User: Fold this.
Amino acid sequence: MLAQSGLDATLVVEFTHEFAQLTPEDFVRQVFVEALNACVVVVGLDTRFGVRNSGDIDTMRELGKQFNFEVVTQDAVGEHQEGQRHWSSTSLRKALAAGDISSANDVLGRTHRVSGTVVHGHHRGRELGYPTANLCAESEGLIPADGVYAGWMVRHDLAENDPEHRLPAAISVGTNPTFDDVLRRTVEAYVLDRVDLDLYHEHVSIDFVQRLRGNLKFDSIEELLVQMANDVDRCRQLLAQPGRR
Assistant:
Protein backbone atom coordinates (compact mmCIF):
# COMPACT_ATOMS: atom_id res chain seq x y z
CA MET A 1 0.00 0.00 0.00
CA LEU A 2 2.90 2.34 0.68
CA ALA A 3 4.33 1.55 -2.74
CA GLN A 4 0.98 2.23 -4.40
CA SER A 5 0.87 5.67 -2.76
CA GLY A 6 3.92 6.70 -4.79
CA LEU A 7 6.74 6.34 -2.25
CA ASP A 8 10.08 5.32 -3.75
CA ALA A 9 11.50 3.71 -0.61
CA THR A 10 10.58 2.90 2.98
CA LEU A 11 12.93 2.48 5.92
CA VAL A 12 11.54 0.46 8.83
CA VAL A 13 13.52 0.90 12.05
CA GLU A 14 13.16 -1.89 14.60
CA PHE A 15 12.14 -0.52 18.00
CA THR A 16 14.74 -2.28 20.15
CA HIS A 17 15.62 -1.50 23.77
CA GLU A 18 18.80 0.18 22.60
CA PHE A 19 16.92 2.28 20.07
CA ALA A 20 14.44 3.37 22.76
CA GLN A 21 17.32 4.76 24.84
CA LEU A 22 18.44 7.27 22.18
CA THR A 23 18.16 10.92 23.15
CA PRO A 24 16.12 13.09 20.77
CA GLU A 25 19.34 14.56 19.34
CA ASP A 26 20.97 11.15 18.83
CA PHE A 27 17.81 9.83 17.18
CA VAL A 28 17.64 12.72 14.73
CA ARG A 29 21.36 12.59 14.01
CA GLN A 30 21.50 8.82 13.40
CA VAL A 31 18.26 8.42 11.44
CA PHE A 32 17.42 11.67 9.70
CA VAL A 33 20.91 13.11 9.19
CA GLU A 34 23.43 10.27 8.87
CA ALA A 35 21.16 7.53 7.46
CA LEU A 36 18.81 9.57 5.28
CA ASN A 37 20.46 12.95 4.73
CA ALA A 38 16.99 14.42 5.08
CA CYS A 39 16.07 17.80 3.60
CA VAL A 40 12.50 17.80 4.95
CA VAL A 41 10.95 15.96 7.89
CA VAL A 42 7.14 15.72 8.07
CA VAL A 43 5.61 15.00 11.50
CA GLY A 44 2.33 15.34 13.37
CA LEU A 45 1.88 18.19 15.82
CA ASP A 46 1.70 15.74 18.73
CA THR A 47 4.88 13.88 17.74
CA ARG A 48 7.05 12.52 20.57
CA PHE A 49 10.46 10.94 20.10
CA GLY A 50 13.63 10.05 21.94
CA VAL A 51 14.11 8.35 25.31
CA ARG A 52 10.96 8.51 27.46
CA ASN A 53 9.27 10.56 24.70
CA SER A 54 11.34 13.55 25.80
CA GLY A 55 11.35 15.20 22.36
CA ASP A 56 8.37 17.10 20.96
CA ILE A 57 7.61 19.34 17.98
CA ASP A 58 9.60 22.24 19.42
CA THR A 59 12.59 19.92 19.92
CA MET A 60 12.28 18.77 16.31
CA ARG A 61 12.23 22.35 15.03
CA GLU A 62 15.35 23.22 17.04
CA LEU A 63 17.16 20.15 15.73
CA GLY A 64 16.03 21.03 12.21
CA LYS A 65 17.80 24.35 12.53
CA GLN A 66 20.87 22.65 14.00
CA PHE A 67 21.14 20.00 11.25
CA ASN A 68 19.77 22.12 8.41
CA PHE A 69 16.52 20.36 7.49
CA GLU A 70 13.01 21.78 7.20
CA VAL A 71 10.27 20.59 9.59
CA VAL A 72 6.74 20.38 8.14
CA THR A 73 3.81 19.66 10.49
CA GLN A 74 0.68 17.73 9.61
CA ASP A 75 -2.60 18.45 11.37
CA ALA A 76 -4.48 15.60 13.02
CA VAL A 77 -7.04 13.83 10.83
CA GLY A 78 -10.41 12.46 11.88
CA GLU A 79 -13.82 13.19 13.25
CA HIS A 80 -14.13 14.85 16.63
CA GLN A 81 -16.14 12.54 18.85
CA GLU A 82 -16.78 12.38 22.55
CA GLY A 83 -13.63 11.15 24.28
CA GLN A 84 -11.74 10.94 20.98
CA ARG A 85 -9.64 13.86 19.79
CA HIS A 86 -8.67 12.43 16.41
CA TRP A 87 -8.08 9.21 14.57
CA SER A 88 -5.17 7.17 15.85
CA SER A 89 -3.87 3.61 15.96
CA THR A 90 -5.06 3.43 19.58
CA SER A 91 -8.64 4.38 18.73
CA LEU A 92 -8.55 2.01 15.77
CA ARG A 93 -7.50 -0.94 17.95
CA LYS A 94 -10.29 -0.09 20.44
CA ALA A 95 -12.86 -0.10 17.64
CA LEU A 96 -11.68 -3.50 16.39
CA ALA A 97 -11.64 -4.93 19.93
CA ALA A 98 -15.26 -3.82 20.29
CA GLY A 99 -16.24 -5.29 16.92
CA ASP A 100 -17.03 -1.85 15.52
CA ILE A 101 -15.85 -2.71 12.04
CA SER A 102 -17.72 0.16 10.38
CA SER A 103 -15.84 2.78 12.42
CA ALA A 104 -12.53 0.95 11.92
CA ASN A 105 -13.05 0.88 8.15
CA ASP A 106 -13.86 4.60 8.15
CA VAL A 107 -10.54 5.32 9.85
CA LEU A 108 -8.57 3.01 7.55
CA GLY A 109 -10.20 4.20 4.35
CA ARG A 110 -10.49 0.53 3.37
CA THR A 111 -11.81 -2.73 4.79
CA HIS A 112 -9.87 -4.15 7.72
CA ARG A 113 -7.87 -7.21 6.65
CA VAL A 114 -6.54 -10.36 8.31
CA SER A 115 -4.29 -12.62 6.20
CA GLY A 116 -2.93 -16.12 6.57
CA THR A 117 -2.67 -19.63 5.19
CA VAL A 118 -5.73 -21.87 5.06
CA VAL A 119 -5.34 -24.88 7.36
CA HIS A 120 -7.45 -27.85 8.39
CA GLY A 121 -9.94 -27.32 11.19
CA HIS A 122 -12.55 -29.63 12.70
CA HIS A 123 -14.35 -29.91 9.33
CA ARG A 124 -17.58 -29.23 11.20
CA GLY A 125 -18.69 -26.56 8.75
CA ARG A 126 -18.58 -28.98 5.85
CA GLU A 127 -20.63 -31.48 7.86
CA LEU A 128 -23.24 -28.77 8.43
CA GLY A 129 -23.33 -27.72 4.77
CA TYR A 130 -21.21 -24.58 5.21
CA PRO A 131 -17.56 -25.51 4.52
CA THR A 132 -15.21 -22.89 5.91
CA ALA A 133 -11.62 -21.90 5.28
CA ASN A 134 -9.73 -21.66 8.59
CA LEU A 135 -6.82 -19.26 8.88
CA CYS A 136 -3.65 -20.44 10.58
CA ALA A 137 -2.83 -19.25 14.10
CA GLU A 138 0.05 -17.16 12.73
CA SER A 139 -2.25 -14.94 10.67
CA GLU A 140 -1.33 -11.28 10.18
CA GLY A 141 -3.62 -8.44 11.21
CA LEU A 142 -5.50 -7.62 14.39
CA ILE A 143 -8.39 -10.05 14.82
CA PRO A 144 -11.58 -8.15 15.70
CA ALA A 145 -14.04 -9.05 18.46
CA ASP A 146 -15.70 -12.45 18.42
CA GLY A 147 -18.77 -12.64 16.23
CA VAL A 148 -20.11 -13.13 12.73
CA TYR A 149 -19.19 -10.73 9.93
CA ALA A 150 -19.93 -10.13 6.26
CA GLY A 151 -16.87 -9.66 4.10
CA TRP A 152 -14.68 -10.88 1.28
CA MET A 153 -12.05 -13.55 0.82
CA VAL A 154 -9.11 -12.58 -1.39
CA ARG A 155 -7.09 -15.44 -2.91
CA HIS A 156 -3.57 -14.15 -3.45
CA ASP A 157 -2.47 -17.20 -5.43
CA LEU A 158 -4.81 -16.14 -8.24
CA ALA A 159 -4.45 -13.17 -10.58
CA GLU A 160 -6.46 -10.07 -9.70
CA ASN A 161 -8.46 -10.34 -12.92
CA ASP A 162 -9.42 -13.94 -12.13
CA PRO A 163 -13.15 -14.12 -11.24
CA GLU A 164 -12.23 -16.41 -8.32
CA HIS A 165 -9.71 -13.93 -6.89
CA ARG A 166 -12.20 -12.12 -4.62
CA LEU A 167 -15.20 -13.96 -3.24
CA PRO A 168 -18.07 -12.94 -0.91
CA ALA A 169 -17.97 -14.62 2.47
CA ALA A 170 -19.62 -15.06 5.85
CA ILE A 171 -16.91 -14.86 8.49
CA SER A 172 -16.84 -16.29 12.00
CA VAL A 173 -14.40 -15.18 14.70
CA GLY A 174 -14.11 -16.88 18.09
CA THR A 175 -14.19 -20.26 19.76
CA ASN A 176 -17.62 -21.44 18.51
CA PRO A 177 -19.33 -21.75 21.93
CA THR A 178 -21.90 -24.31 20.74
CA PHE A 179 -19.08 -26.87 20.63
CA ASP A 180 -16.70 -27.47 23.51
CA ASP A 181 -13.68 -28.77 21.57
CA VAL A 182 -12.54 -25.43 20.11
CA LEU A 183 -9.91 -24.12 22.53
CA ARG A 184 -8.48 -21.13 20.67
CA ARG A 185 -9.94 -18.22 18.78
CA THR A 186 -10.16 -18.91 15.09
CA VAL A 187 -10.99 -16.94 11.96
CA GLU A 188 -12.93 -18.95 9.42
CA ALA A 189 -14.81 -17.92 6.30
CA TYR A 190 -17.58 -19.58 4.32
CA VAL A 191 -17.60 -18.48 0.69
CA LEU A 192 -21.25 -17.84 -0.06
CA ASP A 193 -22.99 -20.75 -1.79
CA ARG A 194 -19.75 -22.55 -2.63
CA VAL A 195 -19.07 -26.12 -1.53
CA ASP A 196 -16.64 -26.97 -4.35
CA LEU A 197 -13.57 -25.00 -3.25
CA ASP A 198 -10.34 -26.62 -2.08
CA LEU A 199 -8.46 -23.78 -0.38
CA TYR A 200 -6.05 -25.70 1.84
CA HIS A 201 -2.53 -24.23 1.94
CA GLU A 202 -3.61 -21.15 -0.05
CA HIS A 203 -2.57 -17.69 1.17
CA VAL A 204 -5.76 -15.66 1.57
CA SER A 205 -6.95 -12.44 3.13
CA ILE A 206 -10.23 -11.85 4.90
CA ASP A 207 -11.66 -8.36 4.46
CA PHE A 208 -14.22 -7.43 7.13
CA VAL A 209 -17.14 -5.30 5.89
CA GLN A 210 -19.76 -5.38 8.66
CA ARG A 211 -20.42 -7.20 11.93
CA LEU A 212 -23.73 -9.06 12.01
CA ARG A 213 -23.81 -10.22 15.63
CA GLY A 214 -21.81 -11.51 18.55
CA ASN A 215 -21.20 -15.18 19.25
CA LEU A 216 -24.11 -17.21 20.60
CA LYS A 217 -24.37 -20.65 22.17
CA PHE A 218 -27.19 -22.74 20.76
CA ASP A 219 -29.00 -25.58 22.51
CA SER A 220 -29.21 -27.71 19.38
CA ILE A 221 -27.65 -28.15 15.95
CA GLU A 222 -31.03 -27.31 14.42
CA GLU A 223 -31.09 -23.89 16.08
CA LEU A 224 -27.53 -23.28 14.93
CA LEU A 225 -28.40 -24.17 11.32
CA VAL A 226 -31.37 -21.77 11.31
CA GLN A 227 -29.14 -18.94 12.55
CA MET A 228 -26.39 -19.79 10.06
CA ALA A 229 -28.90 -19.64 7.21
CA ASN A 230 -30.09 -16.24 8.43
CA ASP A 231 -26.51 -15.01 8.72
CA VAL A 232 -25.73 -16.11 5.16
CA ASP A 233 -28.87 -14.37 3.88
CA ARG A 234 -27.81 -11.14 5.55
CA CYS A 235 -24.35 -11.45 4.06
CA ARG A 236 -25.86 -11.84 0.59
CA GLN A 237 -27.88 -8.66 1.12
CA LEU A 238 -24.97 -6.63 2.50
CA LEU A 239 -22.62 -7.78 -0.25
CA ALA A 240 -25.32 -7.55 -2.93
CA GLN A 241 -25.03 -11.19 -3.90
CA PRO A 242 -27.81 -13.25 -5.57
CA GLY A 243 -29.36 -16.01 -3.49
CA ARG A 244 -28.72 -19.72 -3.84
CA ARG A 245 -30.59 -21.43 -6.67
Summary: The mean pLDDT is 90. DSSP finds seven helices and eight strands in the chain.
